[in-house]
Specification:
heterodimer; A: mainly beta; Immunoglobulin-like; seven-stranded mixed sheet; 0% helix; B: mainly beta; six-stranded mixed sheet; five-stranded antiparallel sheet
Chain lengths: 114, 112
């Protein structure tokens, strides 16, 4: 069983569209994250949720709206997609508490905005 | 702001040799540093965590060192194999922050 699963794997869409990426973890973790990996391979944190509460919002445009219906799920909705949103988006989870906790990542969603 | 630097150029080595990857950081003194492996089309996978009071950590063929004076971590793979070919990322949490910051990674290619 996949520990952190996200769908879809690939997402190709036109500028201006709205799209969602779903993430689920079956590790029993309380904390979930969205990271963005750009073409230069930098992984940058976007959001972090702990037990359904937003704890990190890294000055991401408000076109990006995360939603956590329960602690096992963290979805990412993106409105009015722009060319610069093209990247690979990774969902991750960890145990809560100490900041030294290791992250478990999903396999990524490659978003291409045309 | 916290900056993490890893060699951007790929490291090419012969099978059986030891690969050494470098991670340098500036501005802050993290209490922990982590290393991850990322294969193409996959998410990063955790490998090792080292604490500031640990000079060295080992796991099978992997060894990580942490020099808080130099602000540097070295990641070694001994007796390297083609299956070790991947991108290796270092990551840390600056004190007072609750987020993990990643370097851009170094791509390792082990040739038979």
């Amino acid at each position: 069983d996949t520990a952190v699963s996200q769908t879809p794997k690939y997402l190709v869409t036109q500028m201006g569209n709205d799209k969602s990426i779903k993430c689920e973890q079956n590790l029993g973790h309380d904390t979930m994250y969205w990271y963005k990996q750009d073409s230069k391979k930098f992984l940058k944190i976007m959001f972090s949720y702990n037990n359904k509460e937003l704890i990190i919002n890294e000055t991401v445009p408000n076109r990006f709206s995360p939603k956590s219906p329960d602690k096992a799920h963290l979805n990412l909705h993106i409105n009015s997609l722009e060319l610069g949103d093209s990247a690979v988006y990774f969902c991750a989870s960890s145990r809560p508490g100490a900041t030294n906790e290791k992250l478990f990542f999903g396999s990524g969603t490659q978003l291409s905005v045309l | 702001s916290q900056k993490i630097e890893q060699n951007s150029e790929a490291l090419n080595i012969q099978e059986g040799k030891t690969a050494t990857l470098t991670c340098n950081y500036t501005n802050y003194s993290p209490a922990y540093l982590q290393w991850y492996r990322q294969d193409p089309g996959r998410g990063p996978v955790f490998l090792l965590l080292i604490r500031e009071n640990e000079k060295e950590k080992r796991k099978e063929r992997l060894k990580v060192t942490f020099d808080t004076t130099l602000k540097q971590s070295l990641f070694h793979i001994t007796a390297s194999q083609p299956a070790d070919s991947a991108t290796y990322l270092c990551a840390l949490t600056p004190p007072g922050y609750n987020k993990l910051i990643f370097g851009a990674g170094t791509r390792l290619a082990v040739h038979p």
